[in-house]
Amino acid sequence: MSRNTLIVVAVSAVTATVAAGGAAATVVMLDPEGSHHTGAAARAASPEASGAGAPAEPEPTPTVTVTRPKVVRKTVVVPQPRSGGSFGGADERFLDAIAGDGIKAPADWAIEAGNATCGAGYDYAYRYLTDGGLYGYHVQTFLDDWTLTHGGC
Description:
- There is one protein chain.
- By secondary structure, the protein is mostly helical.
- Among the domains are: 3-43, no CATH class; 90-150, no CATH class.
- 42% of the residues lie in helices and 9% in strands.
- The protein has helices at 3-19, 47-50, 90-100, 107-117, 122-131, 139-150; strands at 24-30, 36-42.
- Strands 1-2 form a two-stranded antiparallel sheet.
- The radius of gyration is 41 Å and the shape is elongated.
């Protein structure tokens, strides 16, 4: 048997033994003359080295802690129906619509801004509304609510 073949056989035997559970490992020694010696080596150290039959302690098992994130629910504020206010008709529906969309603005200013921006270009309306304190992402919603509740400009 050639030396390369012997090495392949030895590696295959060790791999098979480790894959089968590692109960024993096969030790192969090659010397320069090409002869070889094989033998079995016990998995654990000899009893003399380990304290003559002392019971082995089990390996500690890892502890896994799962932390679930706390669910935070947003509080939804439902606007109270307006009754007896000084606004009526389309203006009242407009104020209810923007409140439903999460836009908070003084009623007088919202009606004034709706009248001032109706029919104007988007750039003008954007500057007017954001200068008045509206968030940029609410501008189109504000304009749409005005148009829907007032039937256009």
